[in-house]
From TrEMBL:
Pfam families: F-box. This is F-box domain-containing protein. The lineage of its organism: Eukaryota, Fungi, Dikarya, Basidiomycota, Agaricomycotina. InterPro entries: F-box_dom (IPR001810). It comes from the Eukaryota. It comes from Ephemerocybe angulata. Residues 20-44 form the F-box domain.
Length: 356
């Protein structure tokens, strides 16, 4: 017999006057991820909260139009994660209405993930649009390969929803996530847990721009205004939050700063398990990232693009060397695109050599 759901705060009522059971689920449904984690720490109902999170994940995927258990099985076998609007809705309920699935898999797992998806008659492979493969470019300038992305594959579910499978350039599936144009989207759902890399700001509908030299349209005034119409505040600078910026430091001070280097296992991340797996771990190495930002001195503005590297802090030396050998201690953001002189199109042979 399970223990009654008791909370040490009056949020769900004192012991002598507990919140009715039929209302608990409705109350929990409004709570963002950081609040669920806090409540689980002060309550004897941790198991019920974990079960609520599992139901929230499955319900969100069902509303999008896919079979949640089938997709979570694919993710468990390949180490893939879900990000984008679907993960945002799970982390901060009511912030958006997902209408597609964005799946990110580790380097070398795209073929296996594709075969597993196609093994379910509910999915069929479709052609990726040209813009998903080639970014806008000018001759003798950089070619931006979707930042941290090896390839993009698209599928269509029988419900009509599209699923985009993105293969990371790293053995970690998270590398492309840290190039998203703002921090509100930097969340993910694994096969066993939900993670938010900027949990407090995201749950308060606040984010930082992740400025990049390429794809300026994502930072256009119209795009920022669109986020504002959805109720978010997207800041171009973290100066409004604090002035004492911390540059390189193994322990980030603020967690909401353009200048800090964050890591995927630091204390500013919020993560909560919803499965029976004890201590689930993300595949691949830990990653370290710094957001992109602009620095203005006089009439000159310098843009610092986002940086994502392998974090080897605390690793045994041989493990660190092996990780660097496998994925490379690489800054994943821009690659030179060799063009054919006659047609000014990408030379496919030389283009492949530009990958790390």
């Amino acid at each position: 017999m399970s223990k009654p759901f008791l909370a040490s705060t009056r949020f769900l009522g004192p012991k002598e006057d507990l919140c009715p059971e039929d209302l608990r689920g409705h109350i929990l449904a409004y709570l963002p991820l950081p609040d669920l984690i806090s409540l689980s720490r002060v309550s004897s109902g941790e198991g019920e909260i974990k079960e609520h999170l599992r139901i929230r994940v499955c319900r969100t995927l069902t509303k999008v139009g896919v079979d949640p258990e089938g997709l979570l099985s694919v993710m468990r076998k390949t180490g893939a994660v879900i990000s984008g609007s679907t993960a945002l809705e799970v982390v901060a309920p009511g912030t958006c209405t997902p209408n597609d699935i964005n799946l990110y898999c580790p380097q070398g797992k795209a073929v296996e993930a594709s075969e597993l998806l196609l093994g379910d008659d509910a999915y069929e492979k479709i052609r990726s649009p040209e813009r998903a493969r080639l970014s806008e470019r000018i001759r003798v300038e950089t070619f931006d390969l979707n930042n941290g992305v090896a390839q993009i594959l698209r599928f269509k579910h029988k419900s009509g929803v599209s699923l985009t499978l993105t293969e990371s350039l790293s053995h970690s599936p998270l590398a492309p996530i840290f190039f998203f144009h703002n921090t509100v989207l930097m969340n993910c759902i694994t096969s066993d847990e939900v993670i938010s890399f900027y949990p407090l700001s995201t749950s308060s509908l606040t984010g930082l721009k992740n400025s990049r030299s390429a794809r300026p349209s994502t930072h256009s005034p119209d795009k920022v205004k669109q986020w504002e119409t959805w109720g978010f505040n997207i800041f171009t600078s973290c100066d409004a939050d604090h002035a004492n910026h911390v540059f390189w430091n193994p322990t980030p001070k603020h967690g909401f700063c353009h200048f800090e280097y964050r890591s995927t296992n630091d204390g500013h991340c919020a993560r909560m398990t919803f499965s029976s797996v004890r201590g689930p771990k993300l595949p691949g190495p830990n990653l370290c990232w710094r957001l992109g930002f602009d620095v203005r001195k006089g009439n000159v503005t310098t843009r610092n693009s986002p940086v994502v590297v392998i974090s080897t802090t605390g690793w045994p030396k041989d493990c660190a060397m092996k990780a660097v050998a496998e994925s490379g201690n690489i800054i994943w953001h821009t690659y030179t695109a060799p063009l054919l002189s006659d047609s000014e199109t990408i030379d496919p042979c030389l283009w492949k050599r530009c990958f790390p």
